[in-house]
Amino acid sequence: MESFLIEHFRKIVPLDESEAAYIASHFTYKKFKKHQFVVQEGAPVPNSFLVAKGSLKSYHTDDNGKEHILQFGFENWWITDFYAHSNETPATINVDCMEDSELYCLSLQDREKLCAELHKVARFFLTKANNGYLAQQQRILSLLNSNARERYEQLLLLYPGILNKVPKQLIAAYLGVSRETLSRL
């Protein structure tokens, strides 16, 4: 599985074998069961996670018990409570597994160490952060400017296999519509 991790980096930055081994030595590989929390609201967030297998969701539950999906995490995606992780504060969201998942875990300290020592790693994470920011911006603009049908069609275009991986009630929560509205779409 270590080759998955290294190939993930090599899609953005070239690495020689010693750099690859050094980077890999800072990650831990863990398996999580379906419905297991990776990040839980109110708890510390020591790691960010690269999804090797499986699928996850990050979400906030409001005072009425309604779940608001912020992000899904599929293979090759990074997921955590990025704010809490970066600022070393308690989590304000939950991240849990929608199916059995395998994740590479990276602590904030190890990430900062790698970025300071290897400029390639800093460039990798800058690229990932920029791409994540752009995707979040597009999602917010879609929520502000598109109707439910347009958001649904855009989701299917961006993630063609999502209907096979994610229950419809979670897709509805991600789109900000009811399950009934999603069924009509």
UniProtKB/TrEMBL annotation:
<dbReference type="InterPro" id="IPR000595">
    <property type="entry name" value="cNMP-bd_dom"/>
</dbReference>
<dbReference type="InterPro" id="IPR014710">
    <property type="entry name" value="RmlC-like_jellyroll"/>
</dbReference>
<dbReference type="Pfam" id="PF00027">
    <property type="entry name" value="cNMP_binding"/>
</dbReference>
<protein>
    <submittedName>
        <fullName>cAMP-binding domain of CRP or a regulatory subunit of cAMP-dependent protein kinases</fullName>
    </submittedName>
</protein>
<dbReference type="GO" id="GO:0016301">
    <property type="term" value="F:kinase activity"/>
</dbReference>
<feature type="domain" description="Cyclic nucleotide-binding">
    <location>
        <begin position="30"/>
        <end position="116"/>
    </location>
</feature>
<keyword id="KW-0808">Transferase</keyword>
<dbReference type="InterPro" id="IPR018490">
    <property type="entry name" value="cNMP-bd_dom_sf"/>
</dbReference>
<keyword id="KW-0418">Kinase</keyword>
